[in-house]
């Protein structure tokens, strides 16, 4: 199993690009690979958090599990995204569970070397705050959607944002299985499937497994947000 070039990977991460070569080099001793297979848990809710994670490849879900066993997916992380920064700064136990959705590779950057980089470069702290602010904005937007948008609006909105350059006739590939997407949208799998069938019956989409053909983009927008 080949190891990745940690230095090169950190150099191309937006969060670390503006650091000097010496500052990035200081991160390397505190950075390690975390490889996992689909379904493998990275950390459980309540585990101590001693650093942040970067997704090299694969996908990761952050989720909460209710007492009745129902799982709520809070976020799905894709390559080049990071997670656990906020908990790292708070020095509190992890508030969610993290699990590989598919075989993947992460880099774990220890809190110690992150705090050292912040001490040397205040601009680095600003970039981390900007990233955390964007995630907070996204979470607030999610709460807004769950509170005021219908199931149809949530599904249509998701389909339209999966591909920024989507156009009529284009194919949107769902990055994870439908059950995970349903949980992410705060819907039951049955409701998510029902909405897809409804959109298909209206001639707006065509469902081909995890590929969704957007047959009439303008009508799809109007249907969801009229």
TrEMBL record:
SMART domains noted in UniProt: cNMP, HTH_CRP
InterPro entries for the chain: cNMP-bd_dom, cNMP-bd_dom_sf, Env_Response_Regulators, HTH_CRP, RmlC-like_jellyroll, WH-like_DNA-bd_sf, WH_DNA-bd_sf
Tagged with keyword Phosphoprotein: no
Keywords: DNA-binding, Transcription, Transcription regulation
Region forming the signal peptide: none
Residues covered by the HTH crp-type domain: 149-218
Pfam family, one: HTH_Crp_2
Boundaries of every Cyclic nucleotide-binding domain copy: 15-93
Name of the protein in question: Crp/Fnr family transcriptional regulator
């Amino acid at each position: 199993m080949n190891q990745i070039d940690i230095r090169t990977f950190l150099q191309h991460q937006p969060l670390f690009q503006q650091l000097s070569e010496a500052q990035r080099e200081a991160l390397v001793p505190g950075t390690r690979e975390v490889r996992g297979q689909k379904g493998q848990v990275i950390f459980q809710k309540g585990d101590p958090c001693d650093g942040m994670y970067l997704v090299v490849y694969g996908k990761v879900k952050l989720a909460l599990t209710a007492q009745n066993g129902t799982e709520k997916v809070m976020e799905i992380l894709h390559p080049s995204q990071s997670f656990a920064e906020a908990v790292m700064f708070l020095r509190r136990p992890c508030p969610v569970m993290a699990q590989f959705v598919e075989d993947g590779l992460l880099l774990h950057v220890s809190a110690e070397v992150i705090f050292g980089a912040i001490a040397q470069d205040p601009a680095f702290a600003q970039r981390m705050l900007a990233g955390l602010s964007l995630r907070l904005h996204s979470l607030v937007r999610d709460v807004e959607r769950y509170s005021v948008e219908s199931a149809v609006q949530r599904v249509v909105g998701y389909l339209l944002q999966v591909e920024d350059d989507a156009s009529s006739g284009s194919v949107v590939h769902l990055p994870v299985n439908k059950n995970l997407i349903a949980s992410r949208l705060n819907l039951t799998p049955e409701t998510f499937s029902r909405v897809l069938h409804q959109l298909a019956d209206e001639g707006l989409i065509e469902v081909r497994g995890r590929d969704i053909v957007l047959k009439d983009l303008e009508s799809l927008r109007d249907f969801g947000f009229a």
